[in-house]
Specification:
Length: about 110
């Protein structure tokens, strides 16, 4: 089953036959619909992570726990998306957007 990536949604991503990562899609939905790949940021499940300007802590209502690492940008093929865990909260996505702007110098 191939999933259609949605901006702001968190996915389990297959990286090897027996290994998965968790990431959030940040590319625009119009681009996700047209391309076979999407832009993602890694989610790390580390509650004790340092307070860094490019790490965004996930909230209790978000579909994963830990942090979004906004400098760990990757391209993921839609066939590698294995499970849609749901969308991040609007508040978290706003913070992710601010962190991405800092990382990219925008």
């Amino acid at each position: 089953m191939t999933l259609t990536p949605q901006r702001g949604h968190v996915y389990r991503i297959s990286v090897e036959p027996d290994a998965t990562l968790v990431g959030v899609v940040v590319s625009a939905d119009w681009l996700n619909a047209e391309q076979d790949t999407c832009i993602t940021l890694l989610v790390v499940a580390d509650k004790s992570a340092p307070s860094l300007p490019h790490w965004v802590r996930l909230r209790s209502g978000d579909p994963a726990f830990g942090h979004v690492v906004c400098r760990d940008v990757g391209m993921v093929h839609r066939d590698e998306l294995k499970e849609d865990l749901g969308p991040l909260s609007m508040e978290t996505m706003v913070e992710v957007g601010h962190a991405l702007k800092r990382v990219l110098g925008l």
